[in-house]
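Hi, can you check this record?
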Amino acid sequence: MTFSVRRIDQAEALASADIIVKAYAAPPWEERWDIDNARRRLTELCSSADSISLAAFDGDRIVGFVFASPYTSAIGTGLYVAEIAVLPSHQRMGIGTTLLFHIEREAIRLRYKQIWLVSRQAGGVADYYRANGYDQSKNLCVYAKIIEEKAASQVA
């Protein structure tokens, strides 16, 4: 399969919101995204002037994308990969790896010190990132808290 990669604008990103819906419905994610939330997510990712939005095209159709933005820490500025997804019908064809390669080239061009992302700790996704040269942080983990509507209404 031949595909190309290039930068996309917000309109093109929003037109490909179904990628989030379809890619995250499949294992290991099994998330139930609706198209409106997917569009809101893509709007968030494209709203920063310094964000990098790249897509893989099969002809004129977007089949995968990656969104990243600068993130400065104690070691300097790096690139945070906020989202990377490929249509299930186009997975295991090298598209995700190619998108990572292109985002890495952008980071090098911009003289960023590192690239980081948040993903699964174990399983195929973790193996995929390790195979692409990414190491799991020994110092960091992700914390999350679900805020229920009931608790929010008690504050008001």
The mean pLDDT is 89. The domain at 4-155 is CATH 3.40.630.30 (Aminopeptidase).
